[in-house]
């Protein structure tokens, strides 16, 4: 499910999310993303990278209003948020993925991921920041 979930993230980020349009069939999105998040090839703690986690965090956040499988969504969000926070290195930031050095790309993506996951858990205000730029939660514009 790696490619379909990644493709959905990219397509929905550039369309639905950018224009504040509700996702079609959000329950199926949640079902698919939750199934993908159990794949140990990508979601074992030692294998997590920013792309794969963002591919899960953002669609779950984008479809959160449905309440579909909310306990499971919260459990995945809690697990991934814990993993994201463990990656922080004081004075350096966060590495994009296993074996990488901390850098700007990894730090920016993991901070956005942490915000989306914390928001799913009702904790985003405690972070003291809100993503900006391409990872901002607000639509860029609205379709009339």
Number of strands: 2
Strand residue content:
under 5%
Decide which structural class fits the backbone: mainly alpha
Tally of DSSP helical segments = 7
Quick description:
With 144 residues, this protein is mostly helical.
Question: What this model shows, in words?
Answer:
With about 140 residues, this protein is mainly alpha-helical. It is built from seven helices and two strands, in the order ααααααββα. It has helices spanning about 1-15, 15-20, 25-35, 40-45, 50-60, 70-85, 105-120, and strands at about 95, 100-105. It has a two-stranded antiparallel ribbon. Strand 1 and strand 2 form a beta hairpin. The longest helix has 17 residues, at about 70-85. The radius of gyration is 14 Å and the shape is globular. The model has no long low-confidence stretch (mean pLDDT about 95).
Q: What attributes does this structure have?
A:
144 residues, two-stranded antiparallel sheet, globular, mainly alpha, 55% helix
Topology of this structure?
Layout: H1 2-14, H2 16-19, H3 26-36, H4 40-43, H5 50-62, H6 70-86, E1 94-95, E2 102-103, H7 104-120
Antiparallel strand pairs: 1-2
Helix pairs in contact: 1-5, 3-5, 5-7, 6-7
């Amino acid at each position: 499910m790696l490619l379909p979930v990644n493709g959905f993230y990219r397509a929905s980020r550039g369309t639905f999310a950018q224009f504040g349009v509700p996702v079609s069939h959000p329950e199926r999105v949640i079902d698919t993303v939750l199934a993908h998040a159990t794949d140990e090839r990508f979601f074992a703690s030692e294998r997590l990278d920013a792309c794969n986690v963002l591919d899960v965090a953002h669609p779950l956040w984008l479809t959160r209003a449905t309440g579909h499988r909310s306990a499971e969504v919260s459990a995945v969000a809690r697990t991934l948020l814990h993993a994201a926070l463990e990656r922080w290195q004081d004075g350096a930031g966060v590495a994009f993925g296993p074996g990488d050095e901390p850098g700007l790309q990894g730090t920016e993506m993991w901070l956005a991921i942490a915000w989306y996951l914390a928001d799913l858990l009702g904790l985003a205000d405690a972070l003291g920041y809100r993503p900006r730029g391409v990872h901002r939660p607000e639509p860029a514009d609205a379709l009339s």
